[in-house]
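Task 17 of the worksheet. Students: predict the tertiary structure of the chain below and write it out as structure tokens. Keep your answer in the requested format; marks are given for formatting as well as content.
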Amino acid sequence: MMLIMSKYKFKEVNTMASVRTYNLDTIDIAGIRALLWEALNLKWVRDGYYPVHSNYRVKYYDICMSIAELAAKKNIIQNPPIPQMQPFTNEVSTLAQQRIGSAIWELVCQQILYIDLTQNNYSGNQGFIFDITEYGQKVLANGKPIPHDPDGYLDYLRHEIPDIDNVIYTYVAESIHAYNINLLLSATTAIGCASEKALLLLIEAYIPFLPTEKEQASFVQKTKGKFIKNQFEEFQKSLGGQKGRIDKELVDGIDIVISGIFELLRQNRNSAGHPTGKQMKKENVYASLQIFITYCKRIYALMEFFKNNYVAKVSDDK
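Model answer:
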């Protein structure tokens, strides 16, 4: 407050800025985390830093406001009214600041962002600036789904494969959470288990698709109780003779999309699950999580095809 004189009279004028508060308290940490990723990417594009590169820097206040504005734009929260008293400042609710800070700290712990402390040359005030790391540039240049956003990744997995097996889903969730706290051996083992379960379901679905009882019995005999590697090898051999019965788009590139990824995940799991002493690189685990959804989607597409296109079995004596 200050006093000013007008025509011999003093009157009070309110010189303190009013505040416009975005209330994000109804958004839990998972929602904040998802908004954080989207807000940061939108800011990178808007500021011309796309693809992401090392010149990108952002203040904590700017991150908070970007999340708040995005939440209001998506109608997740109400857009707060503009105060009648000018000028005004924008802020987010205290609880939301804490949740945003936690989500940002996760990115720092995951080595995507790092913290720099800067000082204003005029005011002398210090503030936190967040820079993107070299590893962060690689991660964010690949687009979604992002394993560093566990809830978003798992939601995307559910969206792409609505009827995904609970065992597969559980192991994928375990892998992502282990990855995000740098338990890379555990993350590698878990995603390998998810891959094995998916292959076992594929092989099981394939049996009724075989056209004769003889072929079915022979396949079961060669696969039942065997190691997953042996089962998959027998599946590959048998599938080669059935490709003419399968839609072309499902078998195109199958050696890369299924065979190659399965072998990669299996070998990594064996290295991580046995005391070999081999260390897993974070970039490699990230790549495994990135390719898993594509791999699993193709498996489920094949399973659906086998289910819908099997024929009545021809007995041995016909």
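Marker's comment: The chain is about 55% helix and 10% strand. The two ends are 100 Å apart (CA to CA).
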